[in-house]
Every structure is written in C-alpha cells, then in structure tokens.
Amino acid sequence: MTSKGDTDLILGTLDRDHYRVSGDFVDVTRPDPPPLAARVSAEPQDVLLDLRKTAMIVIDMQNDFCSPEGWMGSLGVDTRSAQALIDPINRVTEFARTVGVPVVWVNWGVRPDRANLAAITRYPFSDKRAFAGLGALVQGGRPHNLLEQGSWGAAIIDSLKVESSDVRVDKQRISGFWDTPLDTILRNLQVRTLLFAGVNSDHCVLGTLMDANFLGYDTIMIEDCVATTSPDFCHKAAIHNVRFCFGFTTTSTKLLGASRGSGVGPSG
C-alpha cells in the first residue's frame, strides 16, 4: 500500500492490481500499462509475450536438493546437474528484475508438525524402512530436518542471487499451486505468462507447470534452467510433454537474445 500526492491513496501494486482512492470516490479501472513485447524463439513455435504480464518461477533450488551436504547429497546423488543451473538462472533473474518481471521462488517449506501432509505425500521421501521423509532428521551431511520451513536444507543455495523485492512461496506438495497462495499472488500481479526454472524438471517443475496450464496461464520452460537427478530419458520426456501438451520451451540464451532484439533487455 502506497500513497501519492495529498489526495490519492494507492491500495495494491501500482501498474498492476490496485485501487486509487481519492477524497470522494474510488477508481477501480486499473488501467493497463502499455505492453513490453518480446519475441522469443521457442518450441514448438516462437512466442510473442508481454513482459509486463510475465513472471519467472524458480522451483526447489534448495540445499536439500542442490548442495552436496543436503539430503540428496547424503544419499550419494550427484548434485552437479543442479549446480550447473546457477549461472543461467542468475542471468535470467537479473534480466527479469531489470524489466519489471517478478521473480518468484517456490520452495518446499514443510510445517514442523507435518499436520497437513498426507501419508502418500510423505512416502516418496522416506526410505521405506526407518527414515520418515519430509521433516525427519537428515543424519548424513549437515544434520537438519528434511525441507522443514526455516531449516538449512530448505534454504535457497547461497550461489543464487535472491533480492528482497523477489516473492517467496512455501509449498508442501510436488505442485507449487496446491495449498499455497501462488495463484492468488500471480493474479494480483496481473500475470498471464510464466517462465519456469529449477529442479526437478520431471517432478516439481513439471507438476507446477502442468497446474499452471490447467489454470489458464501461458507456460514456458527454460531448458537450460531446469534439470533432474532422474535418468536422462525422464528429462527428455518432460521437455517433450511440455512442447506437446502444456506449453513451450526455450533457452536462457534465446530468451535474453530475443529481449535484446526487442530493445527491452541489457545491451551487449
């Protein structure tokens, strides 16, 4: 909430969803800013998008998935595929902020009491024997409770640049839309197009992207900003399914190159 001048009070986010309140009436027209168009080379077709109605969603780039000391690392899983995403994600998020595209970090943040987690949600993260999965104590690497809200394991890896203006959303499911405020936040920002990055491409990224598609958002997966620890055919299947059923794919280079060509991105 911000104010402007002596008579107008702005409720909401100026140039997005807001009221302008004056002394004798409330302006609810919400005038749209002019489009900031960028044509992006993509599959299965190029996309002309409005950057003013676009947000970037970065999923699960957390210590438990991406750090050698995290949960996956403690299981002996090679986390280098996640580490390889750091530079392209940082480049795209930096660009996004310069043109007013919101950056939204969607991460696991499990309640300490796990009261909202069904058994079927917890089961895939257990070892099917003694380890209770989500919220349980991880013994290897750096001891912490797995993906518990506020824990080291749930924190975004230090090498990613996160700004105070970015939006953070905790989730407790594979999809970032179930049981979270993500949809409400995006609609208040008047966003229609979503750019996807993070891990795993065939799990939480794809699940969130599919739900976005079902909710009517335009969905674009940035191929060199997503990865998985699953077999390579799983990643290829996720890319195929996005192109075939759920939206579009592009790369960070194509995205930033298209923006420069449209005169809206950084020079050089």
Task: Please describe what this structure looks like.
This protein starts with a strand and ends in a 7-residue tail after the last helix. Helices cover 27% and strands 24% of the residues. It is an alpha/beta fold. The strands form four sheets. It has a six-stranded parallel beta sheet, sandwiched between helices. It has two domains: 1-31, no CATH class; 32-261, Rossmann fold, CATH 3.40.50.850. Helix 4 runs parallel beside helix 9 (252-261). A hairpin with a 6-residue loop joins strand 5 (37-40) and strand 6.
What's the SSE blueprint?
Elements: E1 2-4, E2 8-12, E3 18-21, E4 26-27, E5 37-40, E6 47-50, E7 54-59, H1 63-66, H2 71-74, H3 80-83, H4 86-98, E8 103-108, H5 119-122, E9 137-138, E10 144-145, E11 167-171, H6 182-188, E12 193-199, H7 204-214, E13 218-227, H8 232-246, E14 248-250, H9 252-261
Parallel strand pairs: 7-8, 7-12, 8-11, 12-13, 13-14
Antiparallel strand pairs: 1-2, 2-3, 3-4, 5-6, 9-10
Helix pairs in contact: 4-9
